[in-house]
Amino acid sequence: MISTIRALPESKLINLVKYYQNLSISQKSHIIYIAIKNTLPSEIEMRTTWNDLLNRVYIKLNDISFENIIYDFLKQNINDLDVLIDIQIYDIESLLICLKQYQYLSDKYSMALYSLFINYLLHKQGYCPMLFYSFGTWKTIKNEQDIRLLIELSLTYLYRFIEVVTPKDIGKDYQLLSEGATSIVYLCFGGRTICKIPKNFIAADLLIKQEYENYLYLSNTCLKKYIASNYVYDSEKNRLYHENIIGVTGEAMLFNHILFSAEQIKSLEYFYLLYSSRLDKELILDIHPGNFIWDELKECWCLVDIGTIPKIGSDYYDFENFKSYFKYVWEDREELMRVVPIRSVDLCLSSVSVKLSDENVSEKGFL
């Protein structure tokens, strides 16, 4: 069975959300700032004051006074605020009750103010704020499954700000290859092996091991041909090893305007057919061209990152046929990255400028 954040037992899931209470003021301020920054008010006239709020919070990052700035903003915009925040959250059920109970705030004021109120409430009670707005849409919570999906998305992105200590002495034969969103990637054992070391809490606690579990599952399916071999999970050091695939990524070929051969198109089409027909739909992989390497020896594409991605936003890869997938996800990638540089979640810790329109925001964007 595929392991995902959204399917965790409730006790484990709520404890992950509550891990927020152990963080430093700096980490908390960064996380709630990003949660607010990714909330774009629908009302054009509200965006100036919203950006002013963001800039005032930004100035106070690493300082506990950022709480007062958010509270004062809510106090100015929501009637009877102190009465409303007198509610306790204990578990998924009480969180669902809270979200439903205060849903009227989105109609009375706005979704932006509603999400800010909920996130302030979560923050004050030691729970991680949530990303109510992402991929160009608001997330409406109706049931427990909706909450689980929202938690999965929020923790996957926001807990990247919780850095973990990586060993200084990796090993004599370890050569730094790249650094991704969740892991640092090394080349080792004479260039034959890839080693992934988690760089933040969410990767160290869940994602590294989940990728290994995905390998165990995929290696017994028709997709085995399209993933690296010899995965090994070192539980003591929390490292993941697998075969090094030598070749060029699909993204590099696209950005360098290298034409795909008929063989490469056929290989990718067959992969997409098998992946679209997979029995376990809970297995959602990040199948963009940057994660594929053309393996000259096997003469097929190899997906070198088989970590599970959040369900929210994964419809980016849902198409009726391969032709549409290849056109939108592969051929149009460079242009989409230019037009919509951030499709999912803006994790940049910087001040903001006023955005007065929704120009250049596409329905799907890119990953």
Structure overview:
The protein contains 14 helices and 9 strands. The chain is of the alpha+beta class and 367 residues long. It folds into 3 domains: 157 residues, no CATH class; 69 residues, Phosphorylase Kinase, domain 1 (2-Layer Sandwich); 90 residues, Transferase(Phosphotransferase), domain 1, CATH 1.10.510. A 5-stranded antiparallel β-sheet has the order 3-4-5-7-6. β3 and β4 form a beta hairpin. α2 runs antiparallel to α3 and α3 runs antiparallel to α4. The longest helix has 18 residues. The C terminus is likely disordered.
Pairing-aware structural class of the strands and helices? alpha+beta
Oligomer: single chain
Q: Report the total helices.
A: 14
**Helix content, binned percent:** 40-55%
Evaluate the radius of gyration: 22 Å
User: What's the domain count?
Assistant: 3
Give a brief description:
The protein has 367 residues and is an alpha+beta fold.
List the helices and strands and how they pair.
Blueprint: H1 10-18, H2 25-37, H3 47-59, H4 66-77, H5 81-84, H6 92-101, H7 104-108, H8 111-124, E1 133-134, E2 137-138, H9 144-158, E3 175-179, E4 183-188, E5 193-198, H10 201-218, E6 232-234, E7 239-243, H11 250-255, H12 262-276, E8 292-295, E9 300-303, H13 322-331, H14 333-339
Antiparallel strand pairs: 1-2, 3-4, 4-5, 5-7, 6-7, 8-9
